[in-house]
What does this fold into?
Amino acid sequence: MPPVCRITDYKKFLYDLKKKQKEIKAKQATVEVKEIRFGPNTDEHDVNFKLKHTRASSRKATR
It folds into this structure.
């Protein structure tokens, strides 16, 4: 017959619980959102430059 209850050290239980939560948090992937602002008078060349730069940085981030 298995034991009905188990006597444990509560501080050790809390320590182990925090340790597990910390490991789970460390394994999570962080999502970073970047913004690019355009004004109403942004020239076409500047838009193309920002677009090219954004695509390059997004490719670099996905590696």
